[in-house]
Amino acid sequence: MPRTARIAPGGFVFHVLNRGNERRTIFESEGDYLAFLRVLRETTEEVPLRILAWSLMPNHWHLLLWPREDGELGRFMQRLTTTHVRRWRLFRHSVGHGHLYQGTYKSFPVQDDDHFYTVCRYVERNALRARLVKRAEAWPWSSLGAPHHLQAAAESPSPTSWPVSKPRDWTAYVNQPQTEAEVEAIRVSIARGRPFGSPTWQKRTASRLGLESTFRPRGRPKKE
Predict the structure, then answer these.
(1) What three-state secondary structure class fits 164?
(2) pLDDT tens digits, residue range 178-197?
(3) In terms of Cα–Cα distance, which of 155, 149, 130, 162 is closest to 64?
(4) How many CB atoms lie within 10 A of CB 95?
(5) What pTM, to 2 d.p., does this model score?
(6) CB contact at 8 A, 43 and 83
(7) What is the rounded CA–CA span in Å between residue 194 and residue 97?
(8) CB-based contacts of 193: which residues, under 8 Å, 6+ apart?
(9) Cβ(165)–Cβ(5) below 8 Å
């Protein structure tokens, strides 16, 4: 585990995910991946939100984002998804043919300490975990792999400094398997929108962002 070192102040870091409607394929070709990266880069020029890590998979994508101010995440995501859907539909001559995405994007805040490393590894080793590649950096459509592939690198958004120091052996660290507990905890945060961090930080962040319900049991309350 790398040693955490804070290097920059800022707002909350957020993990953001969206999937194709009914888990259908979004990226059918290399051109689809490049087109999304182009939209992602263009969106940062309009809404200069910091992109810390990303991974595009055939039927979904992950972004690790660091807004500077309240409301910036919403503005960024609205522009990103609206532009992407419009161009995706226009290219296929299928405007008005139903939803591309399953719904509104899912997000959760991430504590900027070792928990950040855990989520970032989860994002950048996505293709490796899905057995699409043998090494995480071999997947061109991720922040880890794009710099090694000319077309992906040309369309990718500019890299942003992390809120914690980046280890020099980061690529080797990403390629190490994560524990089942780490992966399950992240998946719970994805499903519930639950803050991902230490128990104290989770409680404080949930209160500040109005996310207390993400810790309540689902379903109807038990009858006394």
Answers:
(1) strand
(2) 999 999 999 999 999 999 99
(3) 162
(4) 10
(5) 0.90
(6) yes
(7) 33
(8) 106, 107, 108, 211, 214
(9) yes
